[in-house]
Amino acid sequence: MSYEEDFHERKSRKKGFSGFTVIVLVLIASLIGGGTVAMLVPSMIQAGVIDINGAQNANFYGNSPIVQTRDPLERQQTQLEVTTAIVDAVDRVKPAVVGIVNIQGGQGFFSNHQEYEAGSGSGVIIEVTGNRALIVTNHHVIEGARSLSVTLADGEQVEARLVGSDELTDLAVLEIDARHVTTIAAFGNSDALRPGEPAIAIGNPLGLEFAQTVTVGVISATQRALPVRIGGNKVYEVNVIQTDAAINFGNSGGALVNIHGELIGINSAKIARAGVEGIGFSIPINDAEPIINDLIEHGRVIRPYLGIAPRDLNTVPEQYRPEVPVREGVILSDNPVGPAAEAGLEMYDVIVEIQGRAIDNSVTLRKVLYGKRVGDTINIVYYRGAQLLETQITLGELPELP
């Protein structure tokens, strides 16, 4: 039964005759006929024989607790407040969301050069410095581009230049002339997100034809691990936010914002599989921010380097697992090089702690590691067989991928 049906049913029961009243009327009618009943009913009500207020009904059916129902006007007011908050949030950030077209070139007929639109995505304006405005988007949106075109919220198209991109985290930064910019997105705190709170996705699904599309859902989960594959091989994992706000092709690089209109994620991926709906992923802005800063400053991400090939211990088959007294940690699956080799680590050592923080998998290891700087010295606790050892390692700089 719906809330409205329940509410109106309770009101109608209070206005009608009680069950006891109906029985009395039926008995009287059977004895003396309907006409006489019409004459006697007022007197019987006045004398208290018939209780139209339901007191006899309570005695007849047994005492029942009174159920309080919520005023529909109060519910409508709550719905209005939530809707208004979403609209206000969208108004704050929507002008900062742009469309991006990836233009590539190739050899045409008669050896003439031809350019074509290889794909499109979305982006978010995050900063204005001097005469340039910076836009964050996904690496896969701009990958392979000869040139890039940005369409602003008002429909104006401008050229963009690539500042830097990072394939591992699927992030890129572009710049355009700041004269065209009216709004930048404010960063929220993605570490404070809780499942169930509202999430708003803004972008250009399926291309510029559906520019500035807004979809609303909730935060479905946080700290999801999404594999990154390069050349068909899994080389990395990124932590992502899972949301059921609709994210379609072309939304990549767009904004995921909270109820306050603050940027909490960069939309990155959707599971496209038959029978799967409402599963989209966004890169948490707290994780993206240091990557963005490196791209702005260096054109690439400067990462600290241990010189190990990490693998989660709990994914190693039992017959190949070293005899260590733990079930979780990061095992060195190959001979270490660089800083780790210099510190004395060996293949099959299992790292269980870095800087006092428990390391249960490679994602945790990278989160701790990438929170440090090149040249920092870190303390590592590890098992070599049953023996618990400790060492210090000075971090090097991760070489650029070829």
Automatic annotation (TrEMBL):
Keywords: Hydrolase, Membrane, Protease, Transmembrane, Transmembrane helix. Residues 304-386 form the PDZ domain. The keyword Hydrolase applies. Gene3D superfamilies: 2.30.42.10, Trypsin-like serine proteases. The chain crosses the membrane at residues 20-41. GO terms for molecular function: serine-type endopeptidase activity. GO terms for biological process: proteolysis. Belongs to the peptidase S1C family. PANTHER family: PEPTIDASE S12, PROTEASE DO-LIKE 8, CHLOROPLASTIC. This is PDZ domain-containing protein. It comes from Desulfuribacillus alkaliarsenatis.
